[in-house]
Every structure is written in C-alpha cells, then in structure tokens.
Amino acid sequence: MSYQFDWSQVWQHRDLILDGLLVTIALSVAALVPTLIVGMLIGTLGASTSRAGRVAAGLYVETMRNVPLLIHMYVWYMALAFLRLPAFLCAVLGLTLYSSAYVAELVRAGIAAVPRGQARAAAASGLRPWQVQVLVVYPQALRIVAPSLASLASQLVKDSSLASVIAVAELSYQAGAIEGQTFRTFEVYITIAVLYIALVLLISFAIDHVPGLRARRPIARIADA
Amino acid sequence: MPEPVLAAVVPEVIRDNLPFLAAGFAMTLRLAAVGIVGGSLVGLLLGLLRHAEIPVLSRLAALYIEIVRGTPLLVVLFVCYFAIPALAGYRTTAVAAASLGFVLFIAAYLAEDVRSGLRSVPSGLVRAGLATGLTRWQAFRLIVLPQALRRIIPPVFSQYVRLLKFTSVASVIGVRELTGSALLVNAREFQPVAIIATAAVTYLVVCSGLSLVGRLLDARLSIRT
Amino acid sequence: MSGSPLIVLDRVCKQYGTTPVLRDCSLAVARGEIVVVCGPSGSGKSTLIKTVNGLEPYQSGSVRFDGEEVGARGTDLPRLRARIGMVFQSFELYPHMTALRNVMLAQVHALGRSRAEARERALALLARVGLTERAEAYPADLSGGQQQRVAIARALALDPVAMLFDEPTSALDPEMINEVLDVMTALARDGMTMVVVTHEMGFARKVADRVVFMDEGRIVEDRPAAEFFAAPATERAKTFLSKIIAH
C-alpha cells in the first residue's frame, strides 16, 4: 500500500470539524423537535376513528416518505427559492417533513397496539377524551415504540448530513471543505465517520442509561414478539 | 398518452429535456437494482454469519454492521469514491463507487432484518424437524430459512424503498441519475419549480410502486400462525 | 434381536447446571409395548422421552435404541431419529407448508423417497387420521386436534419402529382430545411400540401395558397398568392419581 497517512492536517483543522459537529447537533435538535410534534399529531390522526382523518394522515405519510430527503431539501432551497429562506431553515423543513412521516407511522402503530379496552376503561372512569389520550393511551403507545423512536432519532442525525448539499456548514460540509484544501481524503472522511458513529452511539447510550427510558424497553420487546 | 394531454400535464422544460432526464431515470433504476441485488446477497451472508455465532467471523460481521449503520450514506459514498481508492491505490468511477456504496450500505441494514427473521422462528420447529431425522443443515434450510425470509418481507421492502430514494445521494459525487440530471437541466434552464416537482413526483410514483410490490408479496407469502 | 427390548435406559442422569432433571432413570420397553409415563409437572417425564431420540443429551448412564447407543459419538442421529416418530405437545407443524407438505418433507429429505412416493404415502396417512380433505390446508387453518393428527401422520410417514408422544393432548381444547386419542388407540392396536407422556388416565387404563410414574427426576413406579390403577404402591402416586381424577 503506497498511501502515506498524515493525520496532522485533520488536527490542524479541528476548529472547522468542531464547528461542523456543533452545526450537525444544532440542526438535528432543531429538526427533531418539530418532527416529533408533527409526527405525534399526524400519527394520532392516523389512529383516529375518523375515516377522513385516517386517509389524510395516510396520504401525508405516503407522500412525504416516498420522496427522497435530498429532493425535500431542494424543494425548499431551490424550487421555493423565491421565499428566500436561510439554508439552515430549508434543511430543518426538509428533515421535518421527511422524518415526521416515519414518526407518524410509528405513533399510529403504537396507538393501535394499545388494547382498546384501555381507552374504554379510561372513558368509563369519567375521563374526557383528551385525558384518555394524554393520560392513558400516549404513555403506553410511546413505551411500545420508544426503541424505534430512538433509532429514528439516530437516523435523523445521519440524514442531516444531506444538508451539506444546500451549503449548510455541518460536519459533512466541513469535511468536504477540509478535503478540498488538504487532499487528505481518507483521514478526513474516516474522522467524520467516527464522529457520526459517536453521535449515534451517544443516542443509544442515552436510551439505555437515562432512567425512565430504559424501563420501557422490555415492554417494547413484548410488543415486538 | 396522446400529445395534447402530455403537453397539458408535462411542463415544456421537461419535454424539451426528456431524453436526458430519461437517461438519468434509467441510471436511478440501475443503481437501485444493483443495490437491491448485491445488498440482499451481502446482507443475507452477514445476517447468516451473525446468526451462526461463529467465533471470530460473527464478531466481525457485527462490527461491520454497527459501523455502517452508524455512518450516514453520504459519508459511505465519500469513503467509497475518495477514501478507499486513495488508500488502496486504484481508480474508480462515480457510478462504480456509488454502486459499491449502496451495496455496502444497505447490506448492513438487511443483515439485521435477516438476523431478526431467523431468530423469530420458534426453536420447537427445529426440534420437530430433527426428530423426523433431518440433519441440522436440512432443518435450517427447509424449515428456518424459508420462514425467516417470508417474515421479513415488509422490513426488507422498506429498506429497498429507502435505497431507491437514497440513490439520489449519488448526485453529490457526480452521478447523473435522476436528481443529478435534474440539477444539470436546472442549471441550464433555471426552472426549479417544474424540474424539482417532476423529480419529486417521479420518485413518489416509483417508490410507492415498489412498496406496493412489497405489500402484495407479503400478502401472498406471509405466514399465518 | 427381536427378543431383547427395543428401548433400554440404564441409570440415566441429567442436570441443567446444578439442578438435576433425571436421576438414575432405568427403563426397558419391549417391541409392541405401550408405556405411559405420568407424574407431576417438572418431574422430568418430557426430558426422559426426549433422551430416547437424542433431543435431550444426558450426562451419564446409557440410552439404547434397538441396540444402538443414542449418546455415543459415532451415532448417526438423523438416521436413528427417522426410525422413531415423535409427537409434540404444541404440534410443531411447519406453518409455511400445507398439511400434505408437512407430511412429505422428511420422507423426501431424510429418507430420500421420491416426491411422488412421498405424496402417495402422505395422502394415505392423512386418510388414516381422517384428514383427506384438509391435505392442502395450512396449519393456521386447522383446529388443534386436526393439527395434532397431521403431526401424527408426519411421524408415521417415516415408517417408524417406535413412537414417542410428549403430552399430545395437553394443548388441546377438551372437545378435541378424543379425536387424537382415538388415532393413538388405533395405532396401539396395530402393534406399534409407544412411549406416551400423558395425564389422560382413561387412555392409560384402556391402552397401556405399563405405567411409569415419575417424581422429581426419578422413576418412582414402573408397573403393569392394571396393578398401578388398582393400587399405586407409593403415597406420591396415590396423591397424584387422586388429584388427576378429582379434576
């Protein structure tokens, strides 16, 4: 093998890498929050008794998740360029619309997995419909889908790398910039691969070790079986 | 479609560039086909290795799966296009690198589906097979594997659809598939609304079609218990 | 050879970790004999019969089937198992195959019969257990009693010299128990060697030559059926019988 390793160039540009990492984290969090909210709403609609509601939710899910994330981003950044949205916001919008479809589908399945008797029993005990949802159905549904939601969150972090194509200066973008200056191809891309893996591991570590999240896993396993 | 209808539905800019866009679309389908076929074979192999618990090999397979699942597709493509050729000292093309990247990427996800499918087959069935005089290998091949593969049709097809969407990322390393061609046409014509919308609708139709195939196949082959 | 017992267990011991499951179990079953094994749950009866076809390994003692040591290193277990039919508590039919294909599978792959021959034999056996019309049905579309009858046909398809039944009626709804017991009774009348783990004492009384009573991994009683039911020798067997019959 003739390749000469030189990691010093990567180290010299550590500030750029750190900037990129922070933007990746900021972008992920900024997209994750609306993703969960929209996903919960659409998912609840999808599990509702209203036929029109279910059809609308199904259309949203199928449309949003059958278009590539990259195209979602170009829609806001290029097709709707006249709106003059900042690139970061375009990335947040693209990620949210795309990922919320997956969250919605999970939430819908989670609600469907809660035995109907639970909601009936709650209603029979005098709770109002919104109380039945919030106090009885959601907590159980979310426990069932918690592990899958966690892996969707990791997915979103990785997907945020596509924001680099619309010039959001996150980790992958900075990697390209450093590679362009130094030509240390292998070192640069291995470094950012390791950083993404670290972020993903951090998320699964958090799920395993934050009290309250961990207890939910066995329940989910029963639901899987 | 008759000419006037075509004219009414399809924007002029698309009609003018149809052969170019069609070639891009063909490349999208080609990349997806290579990824699906190659990824399924590699994924099956990795999944079997994980399941078999062979001392070193199973660990290596697990490590590979963890690393790839923690890395964004964009980074996997960069590694296949820039880093590996630089390290190993060979020349590659964007199409070859993207094909390799898709196979390596999706195989890691399919391997986990294969493994969970294999684990879902009750061990009592293997015992029953052994009791009738089948060898361990026969019991695996005739009883475990066919059931496992049928059970994982839904998750496998959702990975296929995901891969089909993800072929768009190949445009970032310069492959002229649908997204890449659309961007090139837009650079010349500057009609982003029509061009991005056409790409989005095309992906929507193809991805919905592929997931429909998955659902039909599952309805035909799924095992009722 | 026909004079010597077909199945011989000699001081078989087995433990999971430090928990003993079988302690010094000795048993001989002659050709054509029907032996019922009973006892409280956890007494080791299922484990005991699974040592006969090598599905449960044991730590010491010896298990011989037709003169061949089951646990020996050189034993060709698949070939040996093809000569012993086994029926499980939870049927264990292959859910991705029709009843017919369930009965054909091992004929083709373990015995090397042609598909046509296996099919013909399978259809004949399905007729024998009264399921001719259900040959093309999948297990999910069969009742529990029908599934268990298919499982019996699947075991018989290999022309076994002995049959092992591991609580064949325990997972069945009460109204289906008899359809399975009837098939088993017919099989016994035809002279099949059978070892049956069951709580169906009516079946044992009617069909069994001998009853083996197990408790805590030991064979506590091994006596002719008539004697056993007339007066169990041990207090434990008496208590067990009174509980079973009361319920």
UniProtKB/TrEMBL annotation, chain A:
Entry's localization field: Cell inner membrane; Cell membrane
The ABC transmembrane type-1 domain, residue ranges: 21-207
UniProt superkingdom: Bacteria
Membrane topology: Multi-pass membrane protein
Transmembrane segments: 20-45, 74-98, 188-207
Pfam families (alphabetical): BPD_transp_1
Signal peptide: none
InterPro entries given in the database record: AA_ABC_transptr_permease_3TM, ArtM/GltK/GlnP/TcyL/YhdX-like, MetI-like, MetI-like_sf
Keywords: Amino-acid transport, Cell membrane, Membrane, Transmembrane, Transmembrane helix, Transport
NCBIfam families for this protein: HEQRo_perm_3TM
Family to which the UniProt record says this protein belongs: Belongs to the binding-protein-dependent transport system permease family. HisMQ subfamily.
Protein name: Amino acid ABC transporter permease
Organism: Rhodoplanes tepidamans (Rhodoplanes cryptolactis)
UniProtKB/TrEMBL annotation, chain B:
Membrane-spanning parts: 20-49, 61-84, 90-111, 193-217
Keyword field: Amino-acid transport, Cell membrane, Membrane, Transmembrane, Transmembrane helix, Transport
UniProt-listed InterPro entries: AA_ABC_transptr_permease_3TM, ArtM/GltK/GlnP/TcyL/YhdX-like, MetI-like, MetI-like_sf
Segments forming domain ABC transmembrane type-1: 25-214
Membrane topology: Multi-pass membrane protein
Main subcellular localisation: membrane
Gene3D superfamilies: MetI-like
Intracellular or extracellular location(s): Cell inner membrane; Cell membrane
Similarity field: Belongs to the binding-protein-dependent transport system permease family. HisMQ subfamily.
PANTHER family the record matches: AMINO-ACID ABC TRANSPORTER PERMEASE PROTEIN YHDX-RELATED, MEMBRANE COMPONENT OF AMINO ACID ABC TRANSPORTER
Name of the protein described by the UniProt record: Amino acid ABC transporter permease
Species of the source: Rhodoplanes tepidamans (Rhodoplanes cryptolactis)
Automatic annotation (TrEMBL), chain C:
InterPro entries cross-referenced by the UniProt entry: AAA+_ATPase, ABC_ATPase_HisP-typ, ABC_transporter-like_ATP-bd, ABC_transporter-like_CS, MetN_ABC_transporter-like, P-loop_NTPase
Domain ABC transporter, chain residue ranges per copy: 7-241
Record flagged with keyword Membrane: yes
Bilayer topology annotation: Peripheral membrane protein
Cell location: Cell membrane
Predominant place of localization: membrane
GO MF: ATP binding
UniProt keyword annotations, A-Z: Amino-acid transport, ATP-binding, Cell membrane, Membrane, Nucleotide-binding, Transport
Pfam families given in the database record: ABC_tran (PF00005)
Family: Belongs to the ABC transporter superfamily.
Name of the featured protein: Amino acid ABC transporter ATP-binding protein
Originating organism: Rhodoplanes tepidamans
